[in-house]
Amino acid sequence: MNISDLQSFIAVYHLRSISSAALELNMTQAALSKRMKALQCDLQIQLINTENRRQLVITEAGDLFYQYAKEAILRYDKLQLDLNDYRKMNTGVIKLGIIPVLAQYGITQLIGQFKQKHPSFNFHIIENEGVNLLSSLTEGKIDASILRDTQSNLLQDSLYHKIPLVNDELVVVVPASHPLTRKAKLKPQDLANLELVTLLKGSGVYEPVITRFKSCGIEPHVFFESAHIETIIEMINHSQRATFLFKKSAEPFVTPAFEMRSFSPPIYSQQQFVYPKATRLTSIGEFAKQLRQLFQYKITSEQENI
Fold first, then answer.
1. Which Pfam families match (predicted)?
2. Which CATH architecture best describes the domain 91-164+271-304?
3. Which of 3.40.50.170, 1.20.1250.20, 1.10.10.10, 3.40.50.300 would CATH assign to domain 3-80?
4. Beta 258-276 vs 144-148: how paired, if at all?
């Protein structure tokens, strides 16, 4: 039994579903089922009952185990944070994780502006998918990260600061000649029979899209997954396919050959600057404050130029 086993059980406990928990944990349903069986075998007691395929049931032992697992995770997270602070107290470098599409939000320029005003700050910037940055943050491998709220929501508010930076809307992108452009807004039912192209699992795009489809009882036909927006746009060009992107991320790539449509109801997400409350690096708090001010200034300037 390890920390990953505890985290997996907590997800199953919260969602009461192996399939939903597997999606949240970015693993296959079969792998999660195998992990739960191994955990129960290790403990020599049944924690969950899956005989009823419609409703997963937590046993009394499962309820008790959840309380201890939750406390163990809290203690483990605090241990990692405390040890990591001791490891890096003398480095003077902030390790900052960012998701790949942040270039479209001007984050690299904002960091450059901040460094000009505060030359004593040093950064090691690491670009990765949100789900990987989330793991790096909880394991203490990075000091802070800019994440979508779809990922930061998995972190406990009692342990992490989550500073809002900018909101964005998840939209459907189709070729300009696509029949769906006749509609102002789209529902999963409109897309049910289409081949869909999407960013990878863990991107912060895949998860809310799949959740919206499944909430309507529709299994989406995902034809192609990629980590690159350019590839995704090319895959839907001259076709009847559709893809999903956040509006600000998509704008540099959406030429007149493509059109964007909102979901009905719309799906919004927020970029957040996330860092541990227990950090000993006071520079992170100062950077978070300045970064938010720079984002707000950028947003105000863009609105004035419209």
1. HTH_1, LysR_substrate
2. 3-Layer(aba) Sandwich (3.40)
3. 1.10.10.10
4. antiparallel
Q: Which CATH class is domain 168-269?
A: alpha beta
Neighbours of 38 (CB within 10 A): 12
pLDDT digits (tens, 9 = 90+) for 224-242: 999 889 999 999 999 999 9
C-alpha 223/C-alpha 191 separation (Å) is 13
If you ran DSSP here, which 8-state letter would residue 239 be given?
S
**What is the mean pLDDT of the segment spanning 272-277?**
92
pLDDT tens digits, 14-49? 989 898 999 988 899 999 999 999 999 999 999 999
Measured in degrees and rounded to the nearest 5, phi and psi for residue 70 equal -60, -45
How high is the pLDDT of residue 120?
Answer: 67
Cis peptide before 100 (omega within 30 of 0): no
Percentage of the chain beyond pLDDT 70 is 90
The pLDDT, as a whole number, for residue 162 is 94
Cβ burial, residue 219 (10 Å; 0-12/13-18/19+):
exposed
List 123's β-bridge partners, or say none. Answer: 94
- For CATH 1.10.10.10, the residue range(s) in the chain are 3-80
What's the pTM?
A: 0.62
> Any alpha helices (H) in 89-216, and if so which ranges?
107-117, 130-138, 149-152, 188-191, 206-215
- The H or E element spanning position 67 is helix 60-88
> Residues spanned by CATH 3.40.190.290 within the chain?
168-269
The residue assigned the tokens 């009823």 is: 52
Q: In angstroms, rounded to a whole number, what is the distance separating the alpha carbons of residues 14 and 66?
A: 10
